[in-house]
Write a structure and sequence with these properties.
With 220 residues, the chain is α+β, with helices and mostly antiparallel strands. 42% of the residues lie in helices and 22% in strands. Strands 1-2-3-5-6-8-7-4 form an eight-stranded mixed sheet, with helices on both faces. The chain binds coenzyme A.
């Protein structure tokens, strides 16, 4: 790890840096540039909620005053889901209506694909979202910019977050990734996470036959 990378609690004002990291790592672990035009909409969909509305549950890695990585999360995924719809839902609609549809037409196509695409369980015994939230109420998103990957920063962030979740007596954490996130899968296994669900879910139209993997870890 670069000796001058600092890991600290997230602040609300980190949101732009977090949005940038998310955009440059958020396409199945790779840069979303070239796949999804509207960076701000990408941020609204995948990262901005956390620094705006739940920064106290998040940590960032900073180098030269720039956010180069983060772990974002929530201790109660049911509440987070409702808050996301209430707080970010209207902003997504406004962005789509005012900017995305004419400035980034490819973005709109992807969103239509996303809305039409309902993840389907690969077997009939697949655990439901509500059961996942019951056993593993917390969730996380972790991303590090490419030049800083594989230097131990992700491991530090996930340990910090797990201790934070444990200190609130939350019994488990879950997260979603895909079978194409080639760096993330060994990372989660290394940190003791297990796959608890596989869904047929091609989020990105230019990446068919993708499987959504839900990983989880008990903390008690
Ligand atoms: C996945 C990620 C968060 C891991 O963080 P990191 O700081 O790079 O990981 P660490 O240096 O702490 O490495 C821990 C383990 O992760 C795995 N790992 C990390 N980078 C890897 C790579 N490039 N290829 C394969 N495995 C990798 C290895 O198992 C590694 O253990 P090892 O050092 O014994 O090989 C980071 O690589 C990343 O942000 N990747 C792109 C975005 C992404 O996929 N995010 C997850 C979305 S679900």
């Amino acid at each position: 790890m670069h000796s001058d990378v600092i890991i600290r609690k997230c602040k609300r004002s980190d949101w732009k840096g977090i949005m940038d990291v998310c955009y440059h790592t958020g396409y199945m672990g790779e840069d979303a540039q070239g796949h999804f035009g509207d960076k701000f909409l990408f941020g609204l969909l995948f990262s901005i909620y956390y620094p705006w509305f739940e920064w106290w549950n998040c940590f960032v890695a900073v180098h030269n005053n720039k956010v180069i990585g983060y772990i974002l999360g929530s201790l109660d995924s049911n509440i987070q889901h409702k808050m996301f719809i209430a707080k970010i839902g209207p902003l997504i609609l406004a962005r789509l209506a005012l900017v995305s549809w004419w400035r980034y037409p490819n973005t709109l196509k992807i969103l239509v694909h996303l809305i039409k695409q309902f993840p389907q369980a690969l077997n009939n015994n697949a655990i439901s979202d509500s059961d996942i939230n019951l056993s593993y109420p917390a969730h996380l998103h972790i991303d590090i910019l490419a030049p800083y990957q594989h230097q131990g920063i992700g491991s530090k962030l996930i340990s910090l977050y797990e201790n934070h979740v444990k200190s609130h007596n939350v019994p488990g954490i879950h997260l979603d990734t895909s079978n194409k996130n080639f760096k993330a899968i060994p990372f989660y296994f290394k940190h003791g996470y297990k796959i608890i669900r596989k869904l047929n879910s091609s989020l990105w139209p230019d990446s068919p036959n993708t499987i959504q993997l839900t990983f989880a870890k008990k903390l008690k």
